[in-house]
């Protein structure tokens, strides 16, 4: 089943994990939305440099450091996703507690591993 996924920290740099995750999500049939520092496209999907109005987001996957996350707290909680995946290096106890308080599952995991093992 397709899970609409928002990637925060998207990049057109093919060496970045966010780029690999975007392509792997598309390969597995998931709809993606992208937010990043720089404009561009991944698999025909536009990278937004601001916070677009989105609906029905199932999963948010983080590829930005904890110090850059606070500007997204309110935005992500407002999207009401089922879960937020904190990929290695993005773990943030403060944000994870806020998500849990809002009945959003915080997951410290790796999107690429979850996809390759069928746990996504």
Automatic annotation (TrEMBL):
<feature type="domain" description="CoA-binding">
    <location>
        <begin position="3"/>
        <end position="115"/>
    </location>
</feature>
<dbReference type="InterPro" id="IPR036291">
    <property type="entry name" value="NAD(P)-bd_dom_sf"/>
</dbReference>
<protein>
    <submittedName>
        <fullName>CoA-binding protein</fullName>
    </submittedName>
</protein>
<dbReference type="InterPro" id="IPR003781">
    <property type="entry name" value="CoA-bd"/>
</dbReference>
<dbReference type="Pfam" id="PF13380">
    <property type="entry name" value="CoA_binding_2"/>
</dbReference>
């Amino acid at each position: 089943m397709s899970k609409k996924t928002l990637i925060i920290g998207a990049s057109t740099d093919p060496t970045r994990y966010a780029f690999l995750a975007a392509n792997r999500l598309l390969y597995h049939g998931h709809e993606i939305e992208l937010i990043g520092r720089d404009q561009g496209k991944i698999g025909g999907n536009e990278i937004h440099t601001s916070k677009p109005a989105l609906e029905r987001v199932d999963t948010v996957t983080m590829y930005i450091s904890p110090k850059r996350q606070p500007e997204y707290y309110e935005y992500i909680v407002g999207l009401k996703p089922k879960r937020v995946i904190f990929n290695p290096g993005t773990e943030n106890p403060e944000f994870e507690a806020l998500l849990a308080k809002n009945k959003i599952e915080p997951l410290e995991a790796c999107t690429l591993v979850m996809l390759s093992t069928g746990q996504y």
